[in-house]
Design a protein that fits this description.
By secondary structure, the protein is of the alpha/beta class. The protein has 40 helices and 28 strands. The longest helix has about 35 residues, at about 1120-1155. Belongs to the DNA mismatch repair MutS family.
Length: about 1150
């Protein structure tokens, strides 16, 4: 049995046949006999039974109590979880010292450690001197303790545990340089399996990868191969065959194990170490799941958590009741699949110290995005669905897009998905180009039409399930009801919602696969995305035209203006974004709202004025105390928005009764329960802070008046928040619940639990009445004796004469114990009452979470109001700390024409974050005026030297416009503008290799979007159009575009260029103003440009810049003077050639006007 105990975990996943021993040392007869016995017995059940029971069954009466050995034992101090009250001291048997002193003995071979060669990319093992392990590791470590007769397994296995989790004192061990895993050819078992070879791999249905119906998420595993595996290995391969694209964290006892190809990934990405054996195998304790799963998901892997969902005792009972073959392994089920787009930050996922905050530093939303497309007349109609699983919010929409898919690009830029689902074989090439270009680094997954990517009808049928929204669609969220046919008595999609509902169906399928579908849908948080209007339907003089409207910022504009940090930006660019500049938010949900304000600035004049009033109020020196106190309060808040979703999930009855997690055997269950309660307490404490902030604002308001927006957010406790918090304060003892990991309602707070307690007390009272009646009847003293199922036996003196219906149960000297049928009935009633009470007590925690969730509308309303306050405080802090002169933008809605007037404006980001190196430490940002419309031409043709600040000025005007539409003050002496419906940018020169688009093609496509979609209320920035082609072609295209923008669109626009010939044409256009970025030139030398010195003044000035001074820029870039001179000579030759041609053409025209002969004109043209 000793040998079996040590080797069972290795044989757990060892094939039944065909395996070769890992040691060539002959086995003793005793060992051989033991190993044969192990092959027959149920080693799997025995191992799991020992793993499950070892900690709590060391008493003498336990059937699995450990045999006390006389061998000296050493202590390993283990750190299990940060929430443990104290350290656990485990006894681990140390092999006798003779093991290492006799290298010729088998045990010596076992005691030495073998490290995998670095050819597999593994880290060499380093001995650690600090004893460290975990309580969860007890069964796993003990499984590898060996005695003198153990020849088939290695005691050194404990040394191959993950060095990031364990540090075991190995000073008495000497590593040996030999392979720990693999066969003689250095290959793992999975590398030799034929059905895993690329040329033979198939999905579960037998399709090859080149088949249209191939499903990469499944794998065909031959039945004959499974017959040769152990029961647990069959389980693993069955899971793998259905989740081939997912890494399996397979629970074995208290550890998550990875096998075969999954183990290779785990070792390479997580720094784990392979265990001994000819198949890849690595593991880690349960407490480390959150850390390691998060690392793999961040790298783009999918991770499935496979849990044991029954104990060995339950397996034994199931086998007793089964008439068929007896199973040898406990049941296991996939309890969660986590991907980059489906993170939920559950208690088992959390890696923080206190278990209260949930974002782990990741405050921004990470969306799962599904898209469905149909094409008609070369125009695409899209159905889209986004879901943020961390907060349970859905966004749906359906729209007909233009040929450049502008709205699709805009939506993607605003929601930044991290994972994309699309219908296999149904996307157009252009849509694929967008997804591969804009979302090149995002994980994409093709779903099978109808089977996985549900159609609209199937989606609605699914939503009608009782576990989701129910059949009564009148109670569905408003966003979904708007997508239904109003004339149908059952849920049917209307004509303009088929694609959007189908996209939602794809998301539902994927959430089902990840086992969080009910958690998300039952949040009832659905928002309908509608295409924004491009232009007002009424005259702009009416302010109501702009009500409920937002400025449109597409992905190109968000990137060109650097408004929010992008995935492809470096840290410096991210720090210079508008979001990073104005972000002074103290809460995670405030930061997410600030990003929404930046990506979708409002055009509603009422909202803008309310925000401006609030920020002006907060900037008042009289309110410094409020800002400091509010910031301190908000800083203490956890991510309440994500906590609300977590609490909703933990309060679901479905989770407690039907979800696989409800059956999972968790060895850190008590710690998880404590984390759950800590999350609830942190949430309650957070809302208590919100209540305190509301009360504090009420006390400091001047004369009882404050800005309207702050009053609506903090002015009154309209949700009666204090009453709800008081309810939970009285509901249960917080300190006891946090300590015990269980919530027991206080008396009078839970009617159902109170009734159960009352029923138990009444049953006890009935027993006491029966005892007293029996005492009076028999005239003797009677006491109840016994425990468990034998309690309430009536003990009385043995000389008492009892009726015949008294049944003797037991006796002791001088006394006998009886029971009666009536007593048995009373005991049975008590048992039922106690069972119900215990059931309600165990369910008490979930019931409290559910009670909290029923008030979600209250919490959400408070959360939204506090988020707005946090963003307003952030903008006020920016205004107070930026160190620039600020003004309140003036919006004009009654102007006959669009206007944008800025005096002494600064770029909000660059002006306060100039470089501080030695070369630029003395720099200061130059303020500039900008006038577009309102008595001035609406288009400015901007020229100037290279590096003179043209692009910066254009971006400055656009960013100031965005900041003004957020309701903030702006860094300028004054700013006056009429609302801007959309900002277009054509800045920079970038090709798109993935999309197969050249630099010039990208320029033209972006220009096309401007010409097609811009209105007179738009702001257009075009920077150096035409640079990607020849000078003459570029000049011609730039001239035509400039003319169309200024004459037809007549929108506010900046148009920068180095084509000075455009200035002559623009000079006669009354809609265009000529301006340039001023500079000062010293030592100007026509013969030698390397002697010129150009000083950039960065000041916008009227008129045209004489030239671009490109040779000076070349000199600044470090180009050798010889090369610059040669370039200048080439320029003069080209210039002279052009001039000669112009003179010759002029001469030809003169001769033609003077009546010259045809022969003369022919000769002149030939000479030209």
């Amino acid at each position: 049995m000793a040998t079996k105990k040590q080797s069972s975990l290795f044989s757990f996943f060892t094939p039944k046949s065909g395996s070769t021993p890992t040691s060539s040392t002959p086995k003793s007869p005793a060992v051989t006999k033991s190993l044969k016995k192990e092959k027959i017995e149920d080693d799997v059940t025995d191992e799991e039974s020992r793993t499950l029971k070892r900690v709590n069954n060391d008493h003498e009466g336990s059937p699995i109590a450990r045999v006390r050995s006389s061998v000296k034992r050493r202590r390993i101090i283990v750190s299990s979880d940060e929430e443990d009250d104290g350290e656990n001291v485990l006894s681990v048997r140390t092999p006798p010292s003779s093991f290492k002193d006799e290298p010729s003995t088998p045990s010596s071979t076992i005691a030495e450690i073998s490290t995998p060669k670095t050819t597999r990319g593994l880290r060499p093992l380093k001995p650690c001197t600090t004893p460290l392990s975990t309580a969860a590791a007890e069964s796993f470590i003990d499984s590898f303790c060996v005695g003198e007769d153990d020849l088939n397994v290695s005691s050194a296995s404990v040394d191959t545990l993950d060095r990031t989790m364990y540090q075991v004192d190995m000073n008495d061990r000497k590593p040996r340089n030999e392979e720990l895993s693999g066969d003689d050819n250095g290959k793992f078992v999975h590398e030799t399996l034929a059905f895993l070879k690329p040329e033979k791999i198939r999905d579960a249905q037998g399709h090859r990868p080149d088949d249209d119906d191939y499903d990469p998420s499944t794998l065909f595993v031959p039945s004959q191969f499974l017959k040769e595996q152990t029961g647990a290995h069959v389980q693993w391969w069955n899971f793998k065959s259905k989740n081939f694209d997912t890494l399996l964290f397979f629970k074995v006892g208290k550890f998550y194990e990875t096998f075969h190809m999954d183990a290779v990934v785990a070792v390479e990405c997580l720094g784990l170490t392979f265990m001994r054996g000819n198949y890849a195998h690595a593991g880690f304790p349960e407490a480390a799941y959150g850390k390691f799963a998060d690392q793999l998901v961040s790298r783009g892997y999918k991770v499935a958590r496979v849990e044991q969902t029954e104990t060995p005792q339950q397996l034994e009972e199931r086998n007793k009741q089964s008439r068929g073959a007896k199973e040898k392994v406990v049941r296991r089920e996939i309890c969660r699949v986590t991907t980059s787009g489906t993170r939920t930050y559950a208690v088992i996922d959390g890696c923080n110290l206190y278990g209260g905050e949930t974002d782990n530093g990741e405050t921004q939303s990470k969306y799962l995005f599904s898209i469905k497309e149909t094409v008609c007349d070369q125009r695409s109609t899209f159905g889209i669905c986004f879901v943020d699983t961390s907060v349970g919010k859905f966004f749906l929409g359906e729209f007909c897009d233009d040929d450049y898919n502008s709205f699709l690009r805009t939506v993607i830029a605003n929601f930044t998905p991290v994972q994309v689902l699309f219908e296999r074989g149904r996307l157009s090439s252009q849509c694929k180009t967008i997804l591969n270009g804009v979302l090149s680094s995002v994980q994409k997954e093709a779903l099978i039409p109808k089977k996985q990517f549900y159609d609209a009808e199937e989606t609605l049928k699914l939503l009608s399930n009782d576990k989701y929204l129910g059949a009564d669609f009148s109670k569905w969220p408003d966003a979904l009801r708007k997508m239904l046919d109003p004339d149908s008595v059952i849920a049917r999609p209307n004509a303009s919602s088929h694609l959007a509902l189908s996209a939602l169906g794809a998301v539902l399928f994927y959430l089902q696969r990840c086992l969080i579908d009910v958690d998300m849908v039952t949040m009832h948080d659905f928002t309908l995305l509608e295409p924004l209007e491009q232009s007002p339907v009424q005259k702009p003089s009416q302010g109501s035209v702009w009500a409920n409207r937002q400025m449109i910022l597409d992905g190109i504009t968000l990137e060109n203006l650097n408004l929010v940090p992008g995935d492809n930006r470096d840290s410096q660019a991210a720090s210079l974004s508008l979001y990073s500049t104005v972000n002074k938010c103290q809460t995670a949900f405030g930061k997410r709202l600030l990003r929404q304000w930046i990506c979708s600035p409002t055009c509603d004049m009422t909202v803008l004025r309310e925000r401006q009033d609030a920020i002006e109020y907060l900037m008042d020196s009289c309110n410094v105390r409020f800002i400091e106190k509010a910031g301190e309060m908000l800083r203490s808040l956890p991510d309440l928005e994500r906590l609300l979703q977590k609490i909703h999930t933990m309060g679901l009855k479905y989770r407690a009764e039907s979800h696989p997690d409800s059956r999972a055997v968790m060895f850190e269950a008590k710690n998880y329960s404590k984390r759950k309660i800590k999350d609830l307490l942190n949430t309650l404490a957070g809302f208590k802070v919100c209540s305190d902030l509301i009360n504090f604002y009420a006390r400091i308001r001047q004369n009882g008046n404050g800005p309207r927006l702050l009053d609506s957010c903090l002015g009154s406790d309209k949700d009666d928040l204090g009453a709800h918090l008081e309810h939970f304060e009285k509901l249960f003892n917080h300190s006891v619940a946090e300590k015990e990991g269980m919530i027991v309602p206080e008396k009078g707070q839970d009617e159902e639990y109170d009734d159960a307690c009352k029923a138990v007390n009444e049953a006890m009272a009935q027993l006491e009445v029966y005892r007293r009646q029996t005492e009076e009847k028999l005239h003797c003293k009677i006491t109840f004796f016994g425990s468990g199922n034998k309690r309430f036996q009536m003990e009385m003196p043995e000389n008492v004469s009892v009726p015949r219906y008294f049944e003797l149960k037991s006796r002791r000297k001088g006394f006998k114990r009886y029971s009666t049928e009536e007593l048995d009935q009373l005991i049975e009633e008590l048992g039922r009452a106690e069972a119900r009470k215990e059931m309600l007590r165990e369910d008490g925690t979930r019931r409290v979470f559910s009670d909290f969730d029923t008030r979600r509308n209250v919490w959400s309303d408070v959360l939204n109001r506090i988020a707005q306050v946090d963003v307003l405080l952030s903008l006020a802090r920016y205004c107070q700390t930026c160190g620039l002169a600020l003004c309140r933008p003036e919006f004009v809605c009654d102007s006959e024409e669009p206007v944008l007037s800025i005096e002494e404006g600064y770029h909000p980001c660059l002006a306060i974050k100039l470089p501080t190196n030695d070369a630029t430490s003395a720099c200061s940002y130059i303020a500039n005026d900008s006038q577009l419309g309102g008595g001035h031409p609406r288009t400015v043709l901007l020229t100037g030297p290279n590096m003179g600040g043209k692009s910066t000025l254009m971006r400055q005007v656009a960013v100031l416009t965005v900041l003004a539409h957020m309701g903030s003050f702006v860094p300028a002496r004054s700013m006056k503008l009429s609302p801007v419906d959309r900002i277009f940018t054509r800045i920079g020169a970038n090709d798109r290799l993935i999309c197969g688009q050249s630099t010039f093609f990208v320029e033209l496509r972006e220009t096309l979007v401007i010409l097609r979609n811009a209105t007179k209320h738009s702001l257009v920035l075009i920077d150096e159009l035409g640079r990607g082609t020849s000078t003459f072609d570029g000049t011609a295209i730039a001239s035509a575009v400039l003319s169309d923008v200024s004459r037809r669109l007549q929108c506010r626009s900046f148009f920068s260029t180095h084509y000075h010939s455009l200035c002559k044409t623009a000079a006669v256009n009354p809609n265009i103003a000529l301006a340039h970025m001023a500079c000062m030139v010293e030592n100007e030398n026509e013969a030698n440009p390397t002697e010129e010195c150009v000083t950039f003044l960065y000041r916008l000035t009227n008129g045209v810049c004489p030239k671009s001074y490109g040779f000076f820029a070349a000199r600044l870039a470090g180009v050798r003077p010889e090369v610059v001179k040669e370039a200048y000579e080439a320029s003069r030759v080209l210039f002279d050639s052009v001039n000669r041609k112009k003179m010759a053409i002029a001469a030809i025209k003169e001769v033609a006007r003077g009546g010259g002969s045809i022969e003369q004109l022919r000769e002149m043209i030939s000479a030209l």
